[in-house]
Amino acid sequence: MKKKVLSILLAGTMVLSMTACGGSSADTASDTTASTDETAAEETTTEESTEESTEEAATEETATEESSDSTASAGAIRLLNGKPEINDQLLELAELYKTETGNEVSIETIGGDTNASDELKKMYQADNMPDIFVIEANQAATWDGMLADLAGEEWTDKTGFELVDENMGTIGFPYTVEATALGYNADVLSAAGVDPASLTSPDAWKSACETLDSKKDELGITAVFGWCAEPANLGWSSGTHVFGQYLDAGLKADDTTYIDMLNDGGKIDTDRMTKFAEFIGMMNQYSDPNLLVDGTYDNQVAGFKEGKYAFITQGNWCVTSPEDVSFEVGFAPYAFEDGINTIIAGPPSYWVAYKDGNVDAAKTFFNWCAGDSAQDILVNKAGLVSPFDDCQYEATNPFYKSMKSYIDAGNYSGWHTMLKKDGLQNETCQVFADYAKGTIADAAEFTDKISKVITGYYNN
C-alpha cells in the first residue's frame, strides 16, 4: 500500500467509548491456553453498557487476575485482545514470538456481552492492568497520562496509520485496517447489468435498486439490501457505522467538517442529513422486511453469504475468508449526494502500551509485530489487512481487493464516527429503527427527529 497520512490529532476531552467495528466487546479474559468460540458478530461491535453489581464485578476481576497470573511466566507481557475471532491466531503469534525472540507475551481475549470498557475499569481498579490493550481514537483522553509515547519506534516509519494525540504523542499501534461501506455481491450485480463503479449518485442507486428488485426471482435474491435497523442487536451498526456515513462519506480522510459540527453541541448539516435520510429510506424500501426490523447480525451476514442480498450494510469483518462466499465481493459508497465515491477506511482501534507496565517489552513486541513473521500470521491466518507499507502479504479477506483499490486511489474517508460523544449511538440507533418501522414517515421527519435527539444528548 502507498504511504497514508491518517494519524488522528485529538483535541479536547473525550469520554470512554469502547465501541468498535469489528473490535472490542467482552465478558471474559482468556489466557494463552484458552480458545474462543465467539463469532464475528461478537467482535467489538457491541455497544451496550452492562451494569453489574459490586459482587459480580469483584468476581470477574478475580477471575481475570487469576487467569493471567496463573499462566503468564515471570517477565511476560500481557496483551488484552478485543477481537475474539482472532484469538487462536494471536496465540500462535505469541508462540512464534517466543520462538524467535525468547520473549513472552500472554494473550487475554475479551468478547461477548460485557462492554470492554467495564472490563478495563475493573482491571484498573484491581491494579491488574495489562501491558498492552486496545482503545479507539476517542478513548485516548480517558487514558491521558497513562499511555506510553511510541514516537521514534522503527514501525512508525512504515505506516501513516499510527494514532497521534496532541498531548501524549504517538500512542496507538495500528494492527489492522478495516473498511465499511455497502458490501456487494459482484455476481448478482453483473447478472443484473449493474456496474458498481457507477454507483456514485442517488439517481444511479435508485436505478440500480429498481433493476435489482424487478429481477429478484431471476437473480435468486430475497432483497436488494441486507440491512437491519433493530436497535438491541445491531444498534452499534446503525448508530455508529451507518450514521458514520453521514459524517464522512465523500470526504477526504483528514476532513473533519461534520464531526466537528457534531461535537460542537450536537449541530448537524440539515441539507446533508436530509439527503442521507432519503438514501436510508431507499434502503428501508428495498430491504428484506424479515431482517429490517427484527433481524440479528447472524441473520444479516448469513443471508449475504448465502446470496440472498445484493448489498450488506457492514464492513470487511463480515466476510473474512474466501471459503465464506462463492462469489466475488466489493464495496460501493453510500452515495446520497452526487459524486460520493469513498468508503470509510482506517484502523478501527489500536494497541496501546500502559505507561506503568513493561513499556520497553511492549515496544519490542510492536516492532516485531510490524515485521515479516508477525505479518504473515496476522494477514494470512488472521485475515487482517496490514497497515504497513512494506508488508509483502496480500490479505486473504475477500473484500481486500476492493478496499485496496479505494485506498490506493485516495478514495477513502476517516473513521470519525469513533470521535462522537460516547453513547450517542444508543440514541441515534432508535431513530433508524423507528424509520425502518414506519413510525417516522419520511426523510424530513427523520432529519428533524435525529437532530433533536443529537442536540438533546450533547446538551445533557
Oligomer: single chain
Number of helices, where a helix is a run of at least 4 consecutive DSSP H or I residues: 16
pLDDT averaged over residues: 85
Q: Identify the overall geometry.
A: globular
Instruction: Please bin the fraction of helical residues.
Output: 25-40%
Order of helices and strands: EHEHEHEEEEEHHHEHHHHHEEEEHHHEHH
- By secondary-structure content and strand pairing, the structural class works out as alpha/beta
- Major sheet attributes: 4 strands, mixed
* C-alpha termini separation: 43 Å
Q: Strand order of the main beta sheet, please?
A: 9-10-8-11
Rg value? 21 Å
Provide the low-confidence segments as ranges. 1-72
Strand content: 5-15%
Tally of strands: 14
What do you see in this structure?
The chain has helices spanning 54-71, 87-101, 116-125, 186-192, 202-214, 216-219, 231-248, 257-262, 270-285, 289-292, 297-305, 359-369, 372-381, 400-408, 425-437, 443-459, and strands at 9-10, 77-81, 105-109, 132-135, 163-165, 169-172, 178-180, 182-185, 223-226, 309-312, 329-332, 343-346, 350-353, 412-413. The chain is α/β, with parallel strands linked by helices. Strand 5 (163-165) and strand 6 form a beta hairpin. Helix 2 runs antiparallel to helix 13 (372-381) and helix 9 packs across helix 16 (443-459). Residues 1-72 have low confidence and may be disordered.
